[in-house]
Fold this protein.
Amino acid sequence: MNLIRMIYASAISETCSIQEIQKILESARRRNVPDEITGFLCFARGFFLQILEGDHKVVSETFCRIAQDPRHANAALLDCSPIAARQFSDWSMGYVGETKANRALFVQYSETDRFDPYKLTRDNAASLLVALSDQQKASQRQAAA
């Protein structure tokens, strides 16, 4: 398998409602398992930031579908790099929306509390998504306890 990570940013389109995000997640999770794609999605302030991991061809095809999806606007590829191992293997598609707790992470990785993934470097985008994923896992463990 030619394993890659792909990070992209997009804006929610004018025709997409906040309720559609749940449908996006359900569709991603349903498709990603058989396609062996893992990843994590952050949605805040009208923007999406997502990382996808998997076979180069399959991830590229997935990004092309996303870029053509009318719920996304201005899809921009921030990174496409080969990787030796997955960082998001626990998630068929993890998700976090905007919370008070993750605003501190936005500041840490982008130097602003206004979430704008188009202004992130590829390394900061990847690090932010890892930190958000870790925070989400800790929150889920705490809720289960």
